[in-house]
Each structure stands twice: as structure tokens, then as C-alpha cells.
Amino acid sequence: MDKDINQSSFPLPNLGKTLLKIRDDVYHGRGFATLRGFNVDQLSPADVTTAYLGLTSYIAERRGKQNQQGTMMINVVNTGKDVERDNAQVLMPFHTDLVCDTLSMLTLSSGPVGGCGVISSAWTVYNELAESRPDLIDVLAQPNWPFDTHGREPPYYRRALLYWEDEKLITNYSRRILVGESIEPRTPGIPGLTEAQAEAIDALHAIGRRHELQQSMHQDLRLAWERVFNDLERQEEWHFVQYSPTGEQHVIPVWSKPGGDGKGPSPPQPPPPVNRCD
């Protein structure tokens, strides 16, 4: 069904113009947006799905699979005991979703206490590194970082975390598949990070923390919301809500990219090691 939901099949004569402006801001401006007032309680689950995909089609029409089974929409639910999602946990450190241009996130429900999404500008992180630790930029741009494939073949692959394409910075990494985590340990026998790589990825997190922007997921503040990131230029972090018997956190992410011929960009080049991104 989802491939049939696009701007043509989901016309929005008035709101559509605003969404297209948001799309331009996501890709060429500040890189993120938040929509409020999408009242999911008044819609059936099928209508919520249709409306959600229809809205996001104005930002990016081509949706991507989020697992090896080809699922394009995944429910992320925190019930207080665990987060019911492949490879998810209560605290997700800064990362970028690896295979999409944009990330959309719809909150269906939230618990009564706490919970937030955190984003940080990769450009700001890069600029601080360029001024204080340009040697770490060189480490991040080297194509020798060992990414765990968690049971697939080959068991790992190597590439860089930092790129430069069309005068734009691209940061693309996930700490989980570089160092592992408690619910999905690193595959035995594959290379680990070097001391320099460990220092560099810690620096990404520490600087991102200093410049973070928190977006509350609390239901009192927004009943349901959608956020859209230019995922290759932002890094994000999730803090799920504190559980109580009266509520749970339930969000639905969608990975997507703009429509067109489907051709990817030319191979990106490493960024200049000491220049600022302005």
C-alpha cells in the first residue's frame, strides 16, 4: 500500500505548499522540522498510516526498508521493561540512520513522565573539531572503520564516517555497529576500533552533547508529532520515557529519500581536514 501513497494520490492543496517549503528547509536550511496538531486519536490505525505516509511524501517520496525482511514501517514501543524494536534500547547514543536521506518520526503515544528526542548539528561538531582537534577529522575521514554486519556476509566492512559531497558535509555512522551494545554484542573475531578511532567517536558524542537540541516527547506538550531530518547532516539521540502503568512510548520511524531516477550520488570525497563548514 505504502508505495501508492504519494503527492499525487494524497493531494494537500493548502498544507502541501507548506510541506514543500519545509522540505526545502530540511535539505538546504536548518535540516529538521517538527509538525504538531496531527491528532491520531481521531483516526483509525489504517488512516493514521495513510496520513503519515501522505504527509512525509511531501518531504521525501521514496521509502526504504528498515530490516532484511523488507519492512518499511517499524513500531518502536517502550513498555518500561524493554523497547520492542530490532536493535533498540532505552538510550540510543548519537548516531545517524545509515541508509536514508531523511528520517521521519511519528509519536503515537507517550508515557506520563520524561522522554525526548535529541539532535545535534554535525556541521557544528565538525567546526569545533576543525578548530580544536583537526587530527580527529582526518581519523573520521579515513575509509578503515570496521562496521559489523551482525551475522551477514561479509562479517564486517570498512568505510569512513565523514565525507564531503557537493560542498556539503556528510556524517554517517552508528556507534552500535562499530562497538556493539548489551542487547547486540559485537561479532567475535572482527577488528575493533583503534585508540584513535575510539577517541574520535567519543569526541563526536561529547561535542554533540554540548550543542544538543532537545525535543520533548511528552504527550502534554504534543499529542503526536512528526519530525523530519536531513539525516546525513544531523546526528540524533533518543531518550525514551520513564514507564508507568498508565502509559508507554510508541513511535514509528520511516526512512526515505527524494523521488527521481533513483541514482545515488557520485562517490563522496573526504572533507578538507582543517577548513570550517560555513
Structure description:
With 278 residues, this protein is an alpha+beta fold. The protein is built from 6 helices and 15 strands. It has helices spanning 15-28, 45-56, 122-132, 134-141, 176-179, 195-210, and strands at 32-35, 62-63, 76-78, 83-84, 91-95, 102-109, 116-121, 145-148, 156-159, 162-165, 168-171, 213-216, 226-230, 234-239, 249-257. Strands 1, 2, 3, 4, 6, 13 and 15 form a 7-stranded antiparallel β-sheet that branches. It has a 4-stranded antiparallel β-sheet with strand order 5-14-7-12. The longest helix is centred in the last third of the chain and has 16 residues, at 195-210. The radius of gyration is 19 Å and the shape is globular. The model is unreliable at 82-90, 219-227, 239-246 and 261-268 (pLDDT under 50).
Write the layout of secondary structure elements.
Layout: H1 15-28, E1 32-35, H2 45-56, E2 62-63, E3 76-78, E4 83-84, E5 91-95, E6 102-109, E7 116-121, H3 122-132, H4 134-141, E8 145-148, E9 156-159, E10 162-165, E11 168-171, H5 176-179, H6 195-210, E12 213-216, E13 226-230, E14 234-239, E15 249-257
Antiparallel strand pairs: 1-13, 2-15, 3-4, 3-15, 5-14, 6-13, 6-15, 7-12, 7-14, 8-9, 10-11
Helix pairs in contact: 3-4, 3-6, 4-6
Pfam family, one: TauD
Keywords: Dioxygenase, Oxidoreductase
Biased composition (Pro residues): 265-278
